[in-house]
Specification:
alpha+beta; Pseudouridine synthase; 2 domains; two-stranded antiparallel ribbon; elongated
């Protein structure tokens, strides 16, 4: 990526940019930064820019950005399987299932053994219905679920059919568990953390989340927004 030569015409005709999103940025923050950088650098009054799959603000990793005519290919990327590496903390829950909200409940963990964790993690493999988090981008009555959740309103979310192609425990540093997950689009890793806690007779939430792959595209080939601006 760092060796590519960009031009005004190439972005208008369509470029695919692999961005390593930093923490606390929304996916739309990245889109807006790329768009504004292109408009400023090339004096373009208007250019299409979009992303191919949302990452939570507290997540890092691969975000595919399309410009110009390549925005028509966004759906192709969205349909690809995704790989994530996450860290789950056992014994606590938060309303958002990650660190966006504070701990609301604590649970016993003394009964949990390493083999229990590994078995529970493996049990997620396969097709299943998953209940999305209240703090999600799902639309309920035309509104984003997270907007209602942040106001404390009750939601009527419906489960979604997902598939976990591969999942494994990479490390256990109790109460933290590192997990690698290869899954279908629409999978909420925060919901897996929630359900893992329940399977273990405890509670759990995400403390770290990084998207490492989209299809065969790797975050190792991605660049930061800062580097993208320098390359322009």
């Amino acid at each position: 990526m760092s060796e590519r030569k960009f031009s005004k015409e190439s972005f208008l005709n369509g470029e695919i940019i692999f961005i390593d999103k930093q923490i606390k940025w929304t996916s739309f923050d990245v889109v807006n930064k790329v768009r504004s950088s292109l408009k400023y650098q090339y004096n373009i009054p208007k250019i299409k820019v979009g992303h191919a799959g949302t990452l939570d603000p507290l997540a890092t990793g691969l975000l595919i950005i399309c410009t110009g005519k390549k925005t028509k290919e966004i759906q192709n990327f969205q349909d690809l399987h995704k790989e994530y590496v996450c860290t789950v903390k056992l014994g606590e829950t938060t309303p958002s299932f990650d660190l966006e909200t504070g701990v609301d409940k604590t649970f016993p963990t003394e009964h949990i053994k390493a083999e229990d964790i590994e078995g529970a993690v493996l049990s997620f493999k396969g097709k299943q219905e998953q209940m999305p988090p209240d703090f999600s981008a799902k639309r309920v009555n035309g509104k984003r679920a997270y907007n209602s959740a942040r106001k404390g309103k009750s939601l009527d979310l419906k489960p979604s059919l997902i598939e976990i192609y591969d999942i494994k425990t990479e490390a256990i540093n109790f109460p933290f568990v590192k997990i690698r997950i290869n899954c279908s689009k629409g999978t909420y890793i925060r919901a897996i953390a929630r359900d893992l806690g329940k399977k273990l007779g405890s509670g759990a939430h995400l403390t770290e989340l990084r998207r490492t792959k989209i299809g065969n595209f790797s975050v190792n080939d991605a660049i930061t927004v800062d580097l993208f601006q320098k390359l322009l």
